[in-house]
Design a protein that fits this description.
Length: 384
């Protein structure tokens, strides 16, 4: 029994579901959850875990859930502001934020303001406003434990040395479903092909980001903020087997790696129970079964968004927020079959190129304005 009060934001998504699976296996006390529109699943989770409150980002869904839970004492919060209100209602031991996209930023800041530990699966919080998030966490004495498999791995590898002994971070990437393909091969890619990830079972948006390698670009920006390193000291390594989740190289050229079968439940478990380790919820790694581990350089000529992410990380300001906003719109249009796969890459790069002055913006208000402008620009570019 793990007797701590936890909350899971984005509970009906892939990572949220896996986090609740961990909570169920260890008898953890889940006091709050949030979701977007999946009322049926949110109701099932609320009843199973006996939560005190639920927040639904979609207001119609919140009204529906309130009726469904009328026989309980569960308090239902409504809208995006309602999620932050629910977070602020109580300090919890751990809040896991797995909300998708820029929508997770304000909940991240709300968690930090309560003083609760933040288990962060919403990488966009750090992509969009990494300087602000990390500064506020430091000011409030809040620990941020990463839930992304790569960053969870790096966090563990960093226990082997001091900050000033880090030479570089080796950030692994699966390469997605289109590893080895060139630009001409990507022009007629269909949605179902892009969603066929070779290793991980994830939500649609992050799976498309993996296919374009934008997700790895976001993870470079995330790692730079989380671990206090310059992006130029981060190297992306394509590792198709997804067994080594990332590595840290120290100044003595010693490389420390974290390995396991690819299962996000381990990352959620580690972030929630840290500094303690608990019995496994995932399968044991059998190296004889794996047999081979391979490594390759990423193709940044074809998958240009990865190179753009490095550039945005270097320039800073609101430029990473522009990159993220443009990407969110483009991926949504691709999933709606309104644009082609390669159009994602072209339109996002074009938007970033036209908004280079965003590098000089450092306030939260300014970042939000740049985010809005980027969405308007790319929507006009795509004529949707």
């Amino acid at each position: 029994m793990y007797d701590k009060n936890i909350a899971v934001l984005g509970s009906t998504g892939s990572v949220g579901e896996q986090a609740l699976d961990v909570a169920d296996k260890f008898g953890m006390r889940v006091s709050a959850i949030s979701a977007n529109k999946n009322v049926k699943r949110a109701e099932e989770q609320a009843r199973k875990f006996g939560v005190l409150c639920v927040a639904m980002a979609d207001e119609k869904s919140a009204a529906d859930l309130k009726l469904r839970l009328a026989d309980t004492d569960v308090k239902v919060y409504s809208g995006e502001n309602g999620i932050c209100e629910m977070i602020a209602s109580e300090k919890r031991d751990v809040v896991l934020n797995s909300i998708i996209g820029e929508a997770g930023l304000m909940p991240t800041l709300a968690v930090i303001d309560t003083g609760s530990r933040l288990a962060l699966a919403n990488k966009e919080s750090l992509v969009v406003a990494g300087e602000i998030v990390m500064a506020r966490a430091k000011r409030n004495g809040v620990d941020i434990l990463p839930v992304d498999s790569e960053h969870c791995a790096i966090y563990q590898c960093l226990k082997s040395g001091k900050q000033n002994e880090i030479k570089r971070i080796l950030l692994t990437a699966s390469g997605g479903p289109f590893f080895g393909k060139k630009a001409d091969d990507l022009k007629d890619i269909r949605v179902e092909q892009a969603l066929a990830h070779p290793t991980w079972s994830m939500g649609a948006k992050i799976t498309i980001d993996s296919a374009t390698m934008m997700n790895k670009g976001f993870e470079v920006i995330e790692a730079a903020h989380l671990f206090g390193v310059d992006a130029q000291n981060i190297q992306v390594v394509v590792h198709r087997e997804s067994i080594i989740h990332s590595m840290v190289e120290y100044i003595d050229n010693s490389v420390i790696a974290q390995m396991s079968v690819p299962d996000m439940r381990l990352c959620a478990q580690y972030a929630i129970t840290y500094p303690d380790r608990m019995d496994a919820v995932i399968k044991e790694l059998d190296l004889f079964d794996v047999a081979n581990l391979t490594f390759a350089r990423p193709d940044t000529d074809t998958f240009r968004l990865l190179e753009y992410a490095f550039d945005c990380a270097h320039k800073g300001g609101a430029l990473p927020a522009v990159l993220n906003a443009a990407n969110e719109i483009a991926v949504a249009r691709f999933l709606e079959n309104k644009i082609g796969f390669f159009d994602i890459i072209e339109s996002v790069c074009d938007t970033v190129d036209k908004m280079q002055t965003a590098r000089d913006v450092h306030t939260l208000e300014g970042i939000i304005e740049c985010d809005r402008e980027a969405r308007e620009r790319i929507s006009g570019l795509l004529c949707v």
